[in-house]
Design goal:
single chain, 137 residues, 2 domains, 76% helix
Length: 137
């Protein structure tokens, strides 16, 4: 029995989706090419090619971006320092975290938190409105 191109595409999508879930659930862990390629049941070389084709990013860039995005959420919704966030998401120190954060958001983590300090309460209000609307309708 031969595998069709359609079946191969479906299999690859399942493998890559499993990787996306693994990455999001393990942003605080080792997410090296070898570790993640095992989740997809690909060799590291083949996984790197497939992942870059699907996402348009290398695994390292993707993981860094997801860590920065999650750290932004932590800045807004958790009462922890930028140093704690940096270590939580695997940055070697606060300055490397700040550089990566600023490269992505074009402001420092501290400035981001100042500019968006009311965002958390706004989100809570929007959530309450959604609950209210669902009860009314």
């Amino acid at each position: 029995m031969t595998i069709t191109d359609k079946e191969k595409q479906i299999d690859y999508k399942k493998r890559i989706n499993r990787v996306f879930e693994f990455i999001d659930q393990n942003l605080e862990s080792d997410l090296s090419l070898n570790t993640v390629s095992e989740i997809a049941f690909f060799s590291p070389f083949h996984f790197h090619r497939v992942f870059k084709f699907v996402t348009g990013e290398t695994l390292n860039k993707y993981v860094t971006r997801r860590r920065i995005e999650k750290s932004a959420s932590d800045l807004l919704h958790k009462n922890i320092t930028t140093t704690e966030i940096a270590h939580k998401y695997g940055f070697s120190d606060n300055s490397s975290f700040s550089r990566a954060f600023k490269k992505y958001f074009e402001v420092s983590p501290t400035e981001f938190k100042k500019q968006n300090h009311d965002l958390g309460s706004l989100q809570n209000l929007l959530n309450l409105l959604e609950i209210y609307k669902s009860k009314v309708v």
